[in-house]
Design brief:
- The complex is a heterodimer of chains A (616) and B (156).
- With 616 residues, chain A is an alpha/beta fold.
- Chain A folds into five domains: 24-128, Glutaredoxin (3-Layer(aba) Sandwich); 152-361, Rossmann fold (3-Layer(aba) Sandwich); 371-454, Ubiquitin-like (UB roll); 459-547, NADH-ubiquinone oxidoreductase 51kDa subunit, iron-sulphur binding domain (de novo design (two linked rop proteins)); 561-615, Alpha-Beta Plaits (2-Layer Sandwich).
- Chain A is built from 25 helices and 19 strands.
- In chain A, the strands form six sheets. Chain A has a five-stranded mixed beta sheet with strand order 12-11-15-13-14. A four-stranded mixed beta sheet of chain A has the order 2-1-3-4, covered by helices on one side.
- In chain A, strand 11 and strand 12 (384-389) form a beta hairpin.
- In chain A, helix 7 packs parallel to helix 11, helix 8 (172-182) packs across helix 11 (233-247) and helix 18 runs antiparallel to helix 19.
- The termini of chain A are far apart.
- By secondary structure, chain B is an alpha+beta fold.
- Chain B has seven helices and four strands; from the N terminus they run H-H-H-H-E-H-H-E-E-E-H.
- A four-stranded mixed beta sheet of chain B has the order 2-1-3-4, with helices on one face.
- In chain B, strand 3 (127-129) and strand 4 form a beta hairpin.
- In chain B, helix 1 packs across helix 3 (36-46), helix 2 runs antiparallel to helix 3 and helix 6 runs parallel beside helix 7 (139-155).
- The chains are: A alpha/beta (616), B alpha+beta (156).
- At the A-B interface, helix 2, strand 11, strand 15, helix 18 and helix 25 of A face helix 2, helix 4, helix 5 and helix 6 of B.
Chain lengths: 616, 156
């Protein structure tokens, strides 16, 4: 028997939860336990807090809550203290006893744990004062810092499944109108309006329909879907139930990458709870809605993020895309109408139902309403997950939120949209970020990866990297993609090795056209973006490789030489660490690299404390 | 390998051939790779041709047809890790472990692998050693971590 049998029961259940929480009046310490913070040792911090709270007899006053990703991965492990939202960053287990004693018990602020702005040194006490958070609009991610992802009660107490009850009251047609009006566009990268997808699927004649959530986040450098699933899985489940109700589906799948074990674990728990509470199963909330969700783990193929390949994979076949003369919304999984949206798109749906389409379209831009989550990574000070209103400029995201480029280096480019996107130079920093603007400039939104590059990043190498990736991930069905990408990779490799000519560049441009024209799915048809955008904006750098046999950024191995400068004080560390034993020099004497033997591994530069190794 | 384990896994999915991918994944989770006898057994049990299982196993990156090492070092090759020097870390580990990327040492102690992206991009470059994430790694820290595993092997 389901715990929550109807909407009225859900409301009273929520009231009880909130009452109980208010009565207990516990101070909540939310500790980020996303993949990033876990890598910094978050589980040890959580254990240390629990032990200390127990030891000091504070268990009835303070709740220790491991949560999903708070976004500010650069500064993990993050400890957020409610209700003031005071944020301690880079917390280590050793510091926990003092934090409990002085801050939680004594109310004292420990300066050394506060965020300090790298450029000004200024310290900030609360989360919303920190520039990284201040300029964001965290409609989706905000809840990650408050919810225990393994507790459905936490989600319900915060208004969870309210969107679903509203949807059930409105009826499928009115829900569809609301989603269409909100004009929520596919967050997986395509930007296709979800409402139109739902409508076609709903109207396609069939006795059976499916709902699929695409969590095969394959773009390297993107991890927003992972963080939503890890931090707030019920939001995605609720979005999928609303979709199923609207289009009339009774079966759902979440196709999630096997590289995301924590997301799979949290989603499995959340699904079991949703079933027990009565949000999944037969007769959901006392209506005649039947719906269930299964998890499918991906096999590590990038192309399976493509809808038809993904569906083939769920059917137990090799994940090859097919031509979409008939769209998957009409004939998808098992040849039945199938609605597929991305994790972030589904997470937006409860919000739209809860607060209304009018509220939703007041956020963002006219063509791209709402917010978008970006993974701001690479050569930027504040790496992490950023949720910004559509229409913010690249400059605002990278410099105001991201805090600019580290080590005093210069901004060179930002890569958006993963392997299908492109690199945009400094002259495009004032571009407003939305689906259409990025596309017009030769890049794309993609799933929201934003990789910042500085003057030490070689754009020829970046193009080579993406071609290498795509060449490997091409499923091989279309000749232009399979063979074309290989040849393109060879040509760009030639340039990076100083073997290219101007003719190589024209050949690359010609071949890009062919690959685009002759390929079925988006992997092939957008594969030329990383190459063409770097050629468009960084042609000088290509020419330096071709004409001068020089890599200005000092990356392409074949074109660079390592040299030890006068800064060397003869500490001998590089000589000891050199794997080829090709550094000669006595103690306290200038060392010299034998360039004949040097394999350009860069270890000497890494280990030198005196900045004496130079690349030219 | 113990084929009754394979039977148990197939049973978990009610012997449903559309769950082939999941069954293969579970078998690999147990054995660290897909042994030939397991493939034959799945084929017979589900009435799916061996060729189809191999086509899946070679298509999806996550499957391995050869035994892998006791310790698995995985270098993340995502874009964020790449611009922060992931390629150099692969080459470094190739030298330290004396094995090419994708390969396993002869004593079956170490396997060196690359992964497209594990989504811990803020911590790049990132190397996963036996399931533990090492963020912002340097060649020096990698050498230490590998040395630790090698000495542990000697101590056993």
């Amino acid at each position: 028997m389901a715990l929550i049998s109807n909407s009225a029961k859900l409301r009273s259940y929520r009231e009880e939860l909130v009452d109980k929480k208010n009565k207990e009046g516990k101070k909540v310490v939310a500790i980020c336990a996303g993949t990033g913070c876990n890598a910094y040792g978050s589980p040890k911090v959580v254990a240390a807090f629990r032990e200390e709270i127990e030891k000091q007899g504070l268990s009835d006053k303070i709740e220790i809550k491991p949560t999903g990703c708070h976004g500010f991965c650069e500064r993990g492990t993050l400890v957020l203290m409610h209700p003031e939202k005071q944020l301690y960053q880079r917390v280590k287990p050793e510091a926990v006893a003092e934090i409990v004693e002085k801050t939680l018990k004594g109310g004292e602020v420990l300066e050394e744990h506060l965020y300090d702005e790298p450029n000004t040194g200024e310290r900030y006490k609360t989360e919303h004062e920190i520039p990284f958070y201040k300029h964001q609009e965290r409609l989706i991610l905000g809840k990650n810092g408050e919810i225990d992802p393994t507790s459905i009660d936490d989600y319900i107490a915060m208004g969870g499944y309210d969107g679903l009850t509203k949807a059930l009251e409105l009826g499928p047609d009115a829900v569809l109108e609301e989603v269409k009006k909100a004009n929520v566009r596919g967050r997986g990268g395509g930007g296709f309006p979800a409402g139109r997808k739902w409508e076609t699927c709903k109207n396609a004649p069939s006795d059976k329909r499916y709902v699929i959530c695409n969590a095969d986040e394959g773009d390297p450098g993107a991890f927003m879907d992972r963080s939503i699933l890890e931090g707030n899985p019920h939001a995605v489940i609720e979005g999928m139930i609303i979709a199923a109700f609207t289009i009339g589906a009774d079966e759902g799948y979440v196709y999630v990458r096997h590289e995301y074990p924590l997301a799979i674990e949290r989603l499995t728990i959340a699904l079991a709870q949703a079933r027990e509470w009565g949000f999944l199963g037969k007769g959901i909330l006392g209506t005649d809605l039947d719906f269930n969700i299964k998890i499918n783990r991906g096999g590590g193929a990038f192309v399976c993020g493509e809808s038809t390949a993904l569906m083939a994979s769920i059917e137990g076949k090799v994940g090859e895309p097919r031509a979409k003369h008939i769209h998957t919304v009409v004939a998808g999984l098992h040849n039945k109408p199938t609605n597929l949206n991305n994790v972030e798109t589904y997470a937006n749906i409860p919000l739209i139902l809860d607060k209304g389409a009018d509220w939703y379209i007041s956020k963002g831009t006219k063509g791209s309403p709402g917010t978008k989550i970006f993974s701001l990574v690479g050569k930027v000070n504040n790496t992490g997950l950023v949720e910004a209103e559509m229409g913010m400029t690249l400059r605002q995201i990278i410099f105001d939120i991201g805090g600019g480029i580290p080590d005093g280096n210069e901004f060179k480019a930002v890569q958006t949209g993963g392997p299908s996107g492109g690199c945009l130079p400094a002259s495009k920093l004032d571009l407003k970020v939305d689906f259409d603007s990025l596309w017009e400039e030769g890049s794309m939104m993609g799933s929201g990866g934003m990789i910042v590059m500085d003057d030490k990043t070689c754009m020829v190498d970046v193009a080579k990297y993406f071609l290498g990736f795509l060449k490997f991930e091409s499923c091989g069905k279309c000749t232009t993609c399979r063979e074309g990408l290989r040849r393109l990779h060879e040509l760009v490799t030639d340039i990076s090795e100083g073997k290219g000519t101007e003719e190589t560049i024209s050949l690359i441009e010609e071949l890009c056209d062919t690959v685009e024209a002759g390929s079925l799915c988006a992997l092939g048809t957008t594969a030329m973006n990383p190459v063409l955008s770097t050629l468009k904006y960084f042609r000088d750098e290509y020419m330096a490789h071709v004409n001068d046999h020089r890599c200005p950024a000092g990356v392409c191995k074949e074109l660079i030489t390592y040299e030890i400068t006068d800064n060397c004080n003869g500490c001998m560390v590089c000589a000891k660490r050199c794997p080829e034993n090709c550094i000669a020099g006595e103690k306290k004497q200038l060392h010299v690299i034998d360039n004949e033997k040097c394999i350009k591994c860069g270890i000497c530069k890494d280990v030198c404390k005196f900045d004496a190794v130079r690349i030219y | 390998m113990d084929l009754t384990k394979v039977d148990a896994i197939i049973e978990n999915y009610d012997g449903d051939a559309t769950s082939l991918l999941a069954i293969m994944q579970d078998v690999q989770d147990q054995e660290n790779y897909l042994p030939r006898e397991a493939v034959n057994h799945i084929s017979a049990k589900l009435d799916v041709p061996v060729s189809r299982i191999y086509s899946m196993a070679t298509f999806f990156e996550s499957f391995h047809l050869e035994p892998r090492g006791k310790h698995i070092c995985t270098v993340c090759m995502g874009t964020a890790c790449h611009v922060r020097g992931a390629q150099r870390l692969v080459e470094h580990l190739e030298r330290d472990l004396s094995v090419k990327s994708g390969g396993t040492t002869e004593d079956l102690q170490f396997t060196l692998e690359e992964v497209n992206c594990v989504g811990a991009c803020a911590l790049g470059p990132l190397v996963i050693i036996d399931g533990e994430y090492h963020g912002n790694v340097t060649s020096t820290r990698l050498t230490k971590a590998v040395k630790k595993l090698k000495t542990r092997k000697g101590g056993e």
